[in-house]
Design brief:
- The protein is mainly alpha-helical.
- The chain has 2 domains: 37 residues; 222 residues.
- 69% of the residues lie in helices and 4% in strands.
- Strands 1-2 form a two-stranded antiparallel ribbon.
Length: 274
Amino acid sequence: MQSDWQKRRFAAFCLPVIYVVRRVIINLFTNLCAMYEFKSIELLQVVREIESLRDHTDNQKRAIMLKNPSWDVIHDARLTIFAKVINVANSTQLALTFIGQHLLDPFWWQNTAKEAIPSDCANIYINEFNNFTKIGFVQFVFSSIESGFRIFLRALDPTACNNGTAEFKSIYECLLKTKLSSTPKESIELLDLLRFIRNTIHNNGIYYSRVGTNEQVIYKGRSYQFIYSKAVDFVTWGFLISVVRDLVDLAAQVVLDPNVVILSRTIQDPFALK
């Protein structure tokens, strides 16, 4: 017969192990279900990376809220800048899930379309919707950061850059180089890279400049080339998610800069929910 002490010792050892094994089994089952529902393992991985990006952004927002509990979570641009990126990530995840669970399923087309759609045509539609989603992801994330940085600059110096209405490069160079206590490392290079990528969208992925020149951005030790009238071929989902994560971290650095934190009043986001 085991003593009560032996039973308690056995339980203390086994219960954590049982819990870990249970979590492993649940995660394995969840992953198998997701793999079964998704028709593309590669796309499922992208969805998970988007989810990770969203969680990372939410964690940054929560950490900032804990440090600054008086900030208005609904109206203060120092917090809404993260809420906007979270919304973009959620919408992107929904769109990619729709592709993975429905558009890549031939039976979905059979049950939805009024007439038979050849598989090669369906593949074109799927590819176009994926590109549509990727472009929306870039545009809305960039818009979220740009509007936030313009608001921050106006709060710090209402007269700078023509009241914050100048071209965005002037805005972020002024904000990051002259208005913060220190310039975040490689912040200008990061925003230059995103700006060039965003601009290629206006030309279906082809890079053009007003003066007909090539551009190069060196970021994190890697050279990114933008050749005039040539397609940009490195903008994959993995690349975009990684760069946007860096962009979220940059936004956190700006928001937590002493010159921004010291603004005791709410930095009103005019686009926030009423």
